[in-house]
Design a protein that fits this description.
alpha+beta, 330 residues, 13 strands
Length: 330
């Protein structure tokens, strides 16, 4: 069993000003748990990292294809997108194709997560809509399944709705945690969120990597959509999109809120997850990048675009660099 040093520090001058504790797990699709940091069985909400598994039932039943949706729609359904015009337009088109509109989404509006998206909203002088919500693609896909299946869309976000029941079953299948043992809560976008051990999150992504590589239909479709549509999967400056582009699709990472991040290493058949204990997003990118380097999925030194995420600058109000954020040197 490998162990890693992934804690992240924030410096100011020569002093360490803050420190973020990191938990992690790495799962091999053939050998099981092969690496960890701190508690690999820490139970925490999976947040948006679950999105690929939430959309799988829709693909499996054929409803997705019935709508003649393609890789763009699938990438957006799996995305935590940046609220850029391309994301907003596609989410609107997905709803229009099933006779629905923005008001049918239960996710609330929020400021776009990408710098470009936020700038366009700000310069345009208008308020963000529900379509700007980073989960609008996931919600549009859920509404589409109710439409194709003939189910009521009312309360589609609630635990007892058929949409959420099937998503829970899919998460249980891929993580190996029985549905009755998965802790349920409410995600930031309003739908069901799943609480489970980190190691089992890594297991799901390891299986996704291995089965996509061997050509299984559903995992392969999801991997292809993400690899060929990185903009729809995240955005122009979103970490997950940059990682896909810089690795030519060899690594697919999925961000979650509160410091949780999972990744599928396709060539190695590995799944990896990090959880920043205090939930700080500034620590999860350096930690995940270091973990990927330790398993040979990324070079050392990193490409410049990824290096910007691995060692971010701390600036004061005058724009001067006064420190940085990075993984502690082993």
């Amino acid at each position: 069993m490998q162990t890693y040093q992934l804690d992240v520090v924030v410096t100011r001058g020569t002093l360490v000003e803050s420190r973020h504790r990191v938990h992690a797990a790495v799962w091999d699709a053939s050998a099981g748990l092969i690496g960890s940091t701190r508690d690999p069985f820490l139970v925490t909400p999976w947040r948006s990292c679950a999105k690929p598994f939430q959309v799988m039932p829709f693909l499996e039943t054929g409803g997705f294809d019935e709508l003649v949706w393609g890789d763009d729609e699938l990438a957006l359904a799996c995305a935590s997108h940046g609220g850029e015009p391309e994301h907003v337009a596609l989410a609107g088109q997905m709803l229009a194709s099933i006779g629905m509109e923005e008001g049918d989404l239960v996710c609330g509006p929020h400021e776009p997560l990408s710098r470009r998206g936020a700038r366009i909203v700000r310069d345009g002088g208008y308020a963000p809509t529900r379509l700007h919500n980073n989960c609008s693609g996931k919600h549009a896909a859920m509404l589409a399944r109710t439409h194709v299946s003939g189910w009521s869309a009312h309360g589609y976000e609630l635990p007892g709705h058929a949409i959420q029941v099937s998503a829970l079953e899919s998460v249980a299948k891929w993580t190996g945690v029985p549905a009755g043992e998965i802790e349920l809560g409410v995600d930031g976008c309003g739908v069901v969120v799943f609480g489970l051990p980190l190691a089992h999150m890594a297991r799901a992504y390891a299986l996704l990597a291995a089965r996509a590589t061997r050509g299984d239909e559903i995992p392969s479709r999801i991997a292809r959509a993400v690899r060929t549509r990185p903009l729809m999967f995240g955005g122009t400056d979103r970490f997950d999109s940059v990682l896909v582009e810089e690795t030519s699709g060899r690594v697919i990472a999925k961000i979650g809120a509160e410091g949780v991040h999972t990744a599928a290493l396709l060539e190695q058949g590995l799944g990896a997850v990090v959880k920043v204990e205090d939930g700080s997003p500034r620590a999860q990118f350096p930690a995940l990048l270091r973990l990927l380097q330790l398993h040979g999925a990324l070079p050392d030194p990193l490409p410049p675009r990824l290096q910007e995420f691995a060692r971010t600058k701390v600036r004061n109000t005058r724009g001067e660099v006064v420190g940085d954020v990075h993984v502690i040197d082993a």
